[in-house]
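Lab manual, section 2.4: Encoding a predicted structure.

Procedure: take the sequence of the chain (471 residues), apply the prediction step described in section 2.3, and record the output as structure tokens. A sample record is shown.
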Amino acid sequence: MSRLRHPLSALVAAAALSVPWVAIWATGGELGDVGTVAVSGVAVLGASFLLAWAAETAEKDVPRAFAIAVLAVLAVAPEYAVDALYAWSAGSGGATAEACAGLAPEFIERVGELPAEQITTAQERLAASCHDANLAVANMTGANRILIGLGWAGIAVLTVWQARRTADPAVEYREGWLATHVRLDRDIATEITFLFAATMWAFLVPLGGGIDILDMVVLVGLYVVYIGIIIRGDVEAGEQHVGVPAYLQQFPRPRRVATVLALFAYSGFLIFIAVEPFAHGLEDIGKAIGVPSFFMIQWIAPLASESPELIVVSVLVYKARSTAGFNALISSKLNQWTLLIGTLVVVYSLALGQYGTLPFDRIQSGEIWITAAQSFFALALLVDFRISVREALALFVLFGSQVLLEFVFLKIWEPFPEPKFALLLAYTTIYLVLGTGVLLARRKKLRELFQMTAATVRDAAGREPTPDHAD
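Recorded output:
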């Protein structure tokens, strides 16, 4: 093997992508918006490869589901950072439900578009904080819908496309219009079931007047129970790895574990310092060309912060490991739909200086409902552990058309009051009707899914956490 093709060369090359941004971050250098987006974006790319390799290497020592869960948490860490930033701003500015209710929505929206230096009065500062509370919810819902509408749908199509080259065993060719599908790992029954539970709870969140302590207890509790189950799983024999993971798995166990932890820590550090400037740089570029800030926060910033995860999964698909890729996407959706929502109230309350409910307006209630409904429909498609090309396209078309209608046509055509809220409810209804129809058709598969999860829970309850495995 030539030195250039040695796995260490790939490892060093990926790490080298981060060096320019680390140097700029450490020295406090300024690059301007375009330069910041370019250099921090390259660092995120390098971090994504390091994350993928660390997770694949870790599969030798811990249950694959747990390794993927760790990967998923780190990959969506930028989303946590952006959301926490707005939740903190809302709390530190005193944006309580009572205070925000005393301000006109139009005033809150107008002040929210102003540069910080133009916000001078106490009332304007309060309005800006209320706007930040709405942005925290908008960023969260946008990220979740992107994850399914672009992530799940796009990776399914990419997997089928790549199978022509990789002969991915997860791809099954079927007769019929776009009927070829990707088979999913049946071991993700637990993730899908917990996602169902979190999704059903999400429909109730707007009814409580904001995100409160009960939401935190239920949603974070679901994730804690889920982690407790999968960490008790067996270490699978796994599939044969190649390249960097195969090389690292040859290390003696202490050295291998230290290397994996170092890769996780460094890539997580890169994501922490690079993605927020990357996202804000994109926002500033958008504002400079006349794109509304709310659009940038809900769609462009989450798209940027989700990029490490989508790159990681694309790498797995390229290596014919689409099963692991989909597992990572579903695990990411689970932790975003539980930890991300549930912990916002903690950040908000810390900034507020006392316990409080993170408030949001009526439009954000609609955003939560449509996000929950999209999740419901997507999970209904997965209860038989497969997703076809046409199902993936259905997810993409529904997602894309809603965004297009909201931000293009409704700007120039308002046939009824509150057109955005009406549009959100209309798409929520479409998702729910389609999802219910699919579940009725696949009710036997749904019952089998819950039975598999129940068996997994029983096994985990009677098993000690997976012991360390020596070479």
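Check your result against the sample. Residues 466-470 have pLDDT under 50 and may be disordered.
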